[in-house]
Structures are given as C-alpha cells and as structure tokens.
Design brief:
By secondary structure, this protein is of the alpha+beta class. The protein contains two helices and six strands, in the order βαββββαβ. The strands form two sheets. Strands 2-5-1-6 form a four-stranded antiparallel beta sheet. Strands 3-4 form a two-stranded antiparallel sheet. The chain starts with a strand and ends in a 6-residue tail after the last strand.
Length: 100
Amino acid sequence: MNTHPKKLLVLIGEYALEKFLIRDAKRFGAHGYTIADVRGGGSHGTREADWEGSRSIRMEVICDPEVASAISEHVLRNYCANYSVSMYVTDVAVLRPEKF
C-alpha cells in the first residue's frame, strides 16, 4: 500500500463559527473539509444541542502541515478568546494525496 503523510486538524466549536471556519480553511489552502453536528461536555459545561445556541460542530481537515498550522494559529488568535473551541492535530496517511 502506497500512503502519503498528511495532518488531520480537528476543530470542535460553537455552531456560530461554522461559516467562518469554512472560509478560513479555504483561505489558508485546505482542499476540503468534513463537518458534523456533535454534542458533549467539558470545562465550559454541557452542549446538548437542544437549541441552536447550544449546538456544536466538529470540523475535520486533512491537509499539509503548513496548512494545519496556519488554520490553527488563525483560530487561536481570532476565535478562542470569545468562543468555545477545542483543537487537535494528528498524523494521518492518505492513499490519494491529490485530494488533500
């Protein structure tokens, strides 16, 4: 199997950020993304998604390391002070690198 190294950037945040995160991911060079509605709890309480104001999303972006770094640094600078956002990056191996 011929695999190619990439990064998986995962952002979990408030639903209100969705359109901004999509715009930012594209602007910093992501070729695509996946978004899902999610629920959970943490230090800021529980987000049950029972009304629009308590909805959360999980955005996944598979990309080059430089793109993951640019997106995550932008999110840290511009959103984390005022919104509930969690992020992590991990190594992944893809089979079709031209898609990412």
